[in-house]
Amino acid sequence: MPATAEIEISDPAIINAPSTAQVPALVEAAEQSAPEAVEPIRKFASLRELVDTVDTRTALNREEECLAGAIYFESKSESLEGQHAVAEVIINRSESGRFPGSICGVVYQPSQFSFVRGGHMPAINRDSRDWQEAVAVARVAMEEQWDTPASDALFFHATRVSPRWKLKRVATIGNHVFYR
């Protein structure tokens, strides 16, 4: 039978330790009295400002590559907000349970995106500003760093078409209409 040790608690820091119920209030008080000791949250005035801070030189993983490619081909001529909304639809689909469970699965799902031909994306000019923006927007969307009016959208189409969908319209951004 193992021996049990008796522990004497005489350290005042342990005896006077706050209860778990007191901890949130103590953390808030510490943040207010010493805000420089707390990690600052970076806020950006615009999506453009945020996108301009994103590192687009590091290698993309497969999901980032698929999302950036879809943004590039589907909405590179749109505003950053429009590109971000397109990215949100693709991410939402991958998380919905109604579509393939990965971003690449959604992008390459047959008959979903007209730029996918024979299971492949066309070549991308990776030196272009459009590609750099698509990569940055993909990373912002995947890291959930910015909100969009189309945050719960699962479908979109160009404004030049009228598919007569019986879905809830959630936003029109640039040349795309977004639905839930």
Characterize the structure shown.
By secondary structure, the protein is mostly helical. It has a domain at 47-149: Arc Repressor Mutant, subunit A, CATH 1.10.10. The protein has 7 helices and 3 strands, in the order H-H-H-H-H-H-H-E-E-E. The chain has a 3-stranded antiparallel β-sheet, with helices on one face. Strand 2 and strand 3 (176-179) form a beta hairpin. It starts with 11 loop residues before the first helix and ends with a strand. Residues 1-20 and 34-41 have low confidence and may be disordered.
Q: Report helical residue fraction.
A: 25-40%
In the predicted model, the low-confidence regions spanning at least 5 consecutive residues are: 1-20, 34-41
CATH class of the domain at 47-149: Mainly Alpha
Strand content: 5-15%
Q: What is the name of the CATH architecture of the domain at 47-149?
A: Orthogonal Bundle
Main sheet properties = 3 strands, antiparallel
Number of strands: 3
Query: What does the overall shape look like?
Result: globular
The value of Rg in angstroms is 24 Å
- Measured distance between first and last alpha carbons: 64 Å
CATH superfamily of the domain at 47-149: Cell wall hydrolase SleB, domain 1
Mean pLDDT reading = 84
- Give helix and strand order, one letter per element, not per position: HHHHHHHEEE
The CATH topology of the domain at 47-149: Arc Repressor Mutant, subunit A
Strand-pairing-aware structural class: mainly alpha
Number of helical stretches of at least 4 residues: 7
Spatial strand arrangement across the major sheet: 1-3-2
